[in-house]
Amino acid sequence: MNNSKLRPRVFVANLIQPGDIVMTTTPELVSQAIRIVTGADISHAMICIAKSSVIDSTGDGVHARNLERLILEPGCAGHVLRPVKPLTTDQLRSVVAFARAAVGTRYSMASAAQSVLAGLFAGRRQFCSRLVAQAYRNAGASLVPDADFCHPGELLKSAALVEVPNVLRDLSPEEEADRREDLDTVQAMRDSTNALLREARKLSSGIESLNDIDAYLIEHSEGDAHLVQALRSSRYLELWRDEFERNSWQYHVALMEGHDGSEKRKRRYCEELLVDDKLCQNRFVLNHAGYVTINTLHPRQYFGLKIELYDLLTQFHARRITAATAWLVRRGLVESVPRELLRPHTPEWFASLREWNPKQAAISEAAIKATGNTDVCSVCADDPTLDYAMVHMPAAGPGTLRLCIDCFHIRSVEDPMKPF
User: Which of 98, 47, 42 lies closest to 72 in space, CA to CA?
Assistant: First the structure.
């Protein structure tokens, strides 16, 4: 085959779903060697975690990447695999959560080399096919005989997976020029995460992922100041500013209307955002709740900063959802569904509150248990009470409270409320 007549290719992102396994190769010598040894036309594996977003393990560790920026050079193969037996919603969430939790974990060249012959001890470091296979194993789905030591060729030939057809298309010369000049918007996140982890590993060489920092800090409060400084020096707390400035049109429907992107591109962005929001649990909300719980039990400045960060990211995510929904509603593509107010102290109210602020939920549950009465104040357990809704609904949580008159006056100073 004459590769000079071939064009670079890209994946058709709207055909690829969260949970899909994306397989690629490159012209590099290492990639060629992997293909020869494994007898496959690919050398790398990634997990799709959201529309146009994948997580993989490379020389700079486990990180997220933008699938739409990935260019297959002429003659290089690319495949997308999907489970023969579709994942349940819970399984899909488990696969995505496993991959996200591994972000920052260092790459293991030794384990990757051993994967061809199978290894003895897996260890905690990652390589591409191990990350994919372990994520599926964690969700109760077996792809290969040994998830700890497997190579991309085994995934490609797995009887548990089926290939998705027609997922590649040629790039025109104009598109190629634009894509190769386009900024890798997630590179800053990779750099920041690695910088934070490098500082953390000065305290403990056993730290691999971001989650390991939390576990270390629970046991070693003396590391708090160092890790707070690492958070700040790595710019981990400021990356949202870059994203907002780069894509400010995504946060308000008026800016979206005035954005110079095509109608087709805007519609695709809005629809994919809403699909991802329904399919995958909002990780900002989950992370916020997790850090509220950890910081309640083990108060650290580091955890407090993470709570503030995920509070902010949750608000920004809600703004994107609101803008995308409004844009689609204006065109009759979706119907507007008002947010339902939950009556305080109902099972649904507690479920919503626990998801966002487990500490406040525990306080309210304790108040009710102490009095044996659900009509008491959510905060202090006094009565009489009234039910209130926040004038400015929060991005997460129920946005309603049952309050006595004193607590109402205190809480409404910062959060205006109205009876409902």
Answer: 42
